[in-house]
Amino acid sequence: MVDYCKIGFKSGLEIHQQLDTGKLFCSCPGYLRSDEPHFSIKRKLHKVAGEMGEVDIAVKHESLLDREFEYQGYNDTTCLVEIDEEPPHLINESALDETIKVALLMNCEIYPISQVMRKTVIDGSNTSGFQRTVLIAHDGKIETSYGDVRIATVCLEEDSARVISRENDKVVYRLDRLGIPLVEIATYPDLTRPEQVKECALKLGEILRACKVKRGIGTIRQDVNVSIKGHDRVEIKGFQDTKMMIKTIDCEIDRQLENLKGKKNIGDVRNALPDGKSEFLRPMPGADRMYPETDLSLLRMGKQRIDYLKKNLPKLKTDMRDELRKKGVSEDLIELVLEDSEC
Which residue, of 176, 276, 308, 321, has the greatest Cβ tally within 10 A? Predict the structure, then answer.
């Protein structure tokens, strides 16, 4: 039995949830297509320095692979913004509202003014070589049975293009997913045991589902940051199912303990595998890949907008269940009512 306190276990969560609002910086629809694409373009991407003049280590790693990228699109649902031939349009106001709602449901402070940023990404998943992201809120919290978990940040960002095929020197992407709005929630490293990580993920999922989000496989992605005493933080990406969280975290703890025995201390990004183990993906990125978006002005939230959204927040299923119980409604009928509320 692992003594999580003794080994100094710490963990934090990053949740990325697609919004069901159309794309973030253009008017294209935000749905995936399975029919034959109408056209494709080819690109190569190169590394660039971040805001402070340094090239990020993860960007350097990707640039050494020297891959060619092919992007598939459609004449009727792909625009010049998505192929990086036109500046971004104004931000999707509906996506912004839903993100503010999510933040308010977690008791976050909303930034009155924010700057859209570019995050350098040259693995080909963005045609421009960067992902647009904007910091919306900070310093919230949610409750778990193991104690409160602080919310560090809530961001609104673009989803990446999706992979169709991958070879050693070439990756084929489709542009239907590129630009779909994502809410990114990042917690502080307040999670002290794997069971709390899972509970926190489920609680965040409940909050997100109360708002206008997409449903189904691939619409939510969960990353877990794990560290033990003496070992650097490791980010494990790619959780689609919370049922695998506890097993995967325990496997990562074992791996880090073995690293320390061999006097290794390597913080990197790893990909979650179906058996609970993980594989190396890329070096851990830093702050050097961020710089301001030059094609968009400052984003102003406005007190009137925030006050209106506060007064019209959706109810969580947990709160609805408690209210119905107080009114004497049977458990079977409660589940039926809550099931209908999701339709």
Answer: 176
Half-sphere exposure of 187 (CA within 13 A, CB side): 29
CB-based burial label for 225 (10 Å; 0-12, 13-18, 19+): buried
3-state secondary structure of 214: coil
Q: Are 150 and 140 in contact (CB under 8 A)?
A: yes
What value does the mean pLDDT of the chain take? 91
Q: How confident is the model at residue 241 (pLDDT cuts 50, 70, 90)?
A: confident
User: Which amino acid belongs to residue 22?
Assistant: G
User: Cα 187 from chain centroid?
Assistant: 12
Cα separation, 173 vs 178, in Å, equals: 9
Residue type, 72: Q
Which DSSP string do the residues of 28-72 spell out, in sequence order? -------SPPSEEEEE-------TTS---HHHHHHHTT--EEEEE
Asked if the model's pLDDT at residue 113 lies above 70, the reply is yes
Separation between Cα atoms, residue 107 and residue 93, nearest integer Å? 21
Record the pTM.
0.89
Residue range 121-165, pLDDT digits in tens: 878 999 998 999 999 999 999 999 999 999 999 999 999 999 999
